[in-house]
Write a structure and sequence with these properties.
alpha/beta, two-stranded antiparallel ribbon
């Protein structure tokens, strides 16, 4: 791992039985590109430790909200990136025809050899449809939907750049994200939830809290360039999750609707094109990750507690 003059504080190795060596970086400066929901989960862990976080957004209102939380907001694209100040870099920016970060700043990032860590948030969609079968990080990529194909291409572009520059890159393939403000409860309460039934459909999920702790562990680890699936232990059909959420609200679940008859946006329908169950053994082994919410039952209960 590189050491930088911008890094404040000191490093002390922490060793726990059964874990990979963890390096405690007391403070640093994270440049978070596309600082959204997942990056905010990391923000909540780093700010109390004294980190500086520079977060980019397109939206002036979101920039104001970031500033109120203690983030240094930066309107981007259109503004130079303060790479010289950063010790760590995280990109949550979704690709289009190409990765917009690399298209605009790839040459600069390639020369930012002081960076101690680069993180890229991808998706388990890069594995494509496995008809409910299991996949791990060694599975061949088989993306079919345009969004997943673009993610696979972006992963490869980030890997190629970081390999050339000698930068340590961690790629996180995230499952379906849920957490406070992003769950089934509002749709159930307002009667907008649909019990969509597609036989053999499985989704894997990851709770907001576990995204934050996994990214935090990775930043403070000495792991070399790696790719990790980030998901919980309990892939499940979507209707099972919705039924459980309705039970937590003491409501009857909505009536079942066959997939081919359901009213869905094109994006929502595209999620049903892939059915897979995702292994998370590698990230547990490499980082000593112990999931806060290993299944949707504990995750949904935590959302309700957070709502009060």
């Amino acid at each position: 791992m590189r050491h930088s003059s911008q890094t404040r504080g000191q490093r002390q190795p922490l060793h726990r039985a059964g874990d990979s060596p963890i390096v405690a970086l007391m403070t640093g400066t994270l440049l978070s590109l596309g600082h959204g929901y997942s990056a905010q989960a990391l923000e909540e862990r780093l700010l109390p430790k004294g980190w500086t976080i520079i977060g980019t957004t397109r939206n002036p209102e979101k920039a104001a909200a970031m500033a109120a939380r203690g983030i240094e907001p930066l309107i981007w694209p259109g503004t130079p990136l303060p790479l010289a100040r950063a010790t760590h870099l995280l990109s949550s920016v979704a690709p289009g025809a190409s990765d917009p970060v690399l298209a605009a700043h790839g040459a600069e990032i390639a020369t930012a050899t002081h960076l101690q860590w680069v993180g890229y948030l991808s998706t388990v969609g890069v594995y494509g449809d496995r008809q409910g079968g299991w996949v791990d990080e060694d599975a061949a990529l088989d993306a079919k939907t345009p969004r997943s194909v673009a993610r696979a291409e972006a992963e490869a572009a980030w890997q190629a750049l970081c390999d050339r520059a000698g930068l340590r890159l961690h790629i996180f393939r995230l499952a379906g994200i849920y957490g406070p403000g992003r769950g089934p409860f509002e749709k159930l309460r307002t009667g907008r939830a649909q019990m969509v039934i597609k036989p053999g459909q499985y989704f894997s999920r990851i709770h907001y809290d576990d995204i934050g702790q996994a990214l935090d562990l990775a930043i403070h680890s000495d792991q070399p360039a790696r790719i990790w699936n980030l998901c919980d232990d309990a892939p499940a059909p979507p209707q099972d999750v919705l039924r459980h959420a309705a039970a937590l609200l003491h409501m009857d679940p909505p009536p079942e609707v066959p997939f081919d008859q359901a009213e869905m946006s094109p994006m929502a329908r595209s999620f049903y094109a892939d059915s897979k169950r995702v292994h998370n053994d590698r990230i547990k082994r490499d980082l000593g990750l112990e999931l806060i919410h290993p299944n949707y039952q504990t995750g949904l209960a935590a959302i309700l507690r957070a709502e009060g």
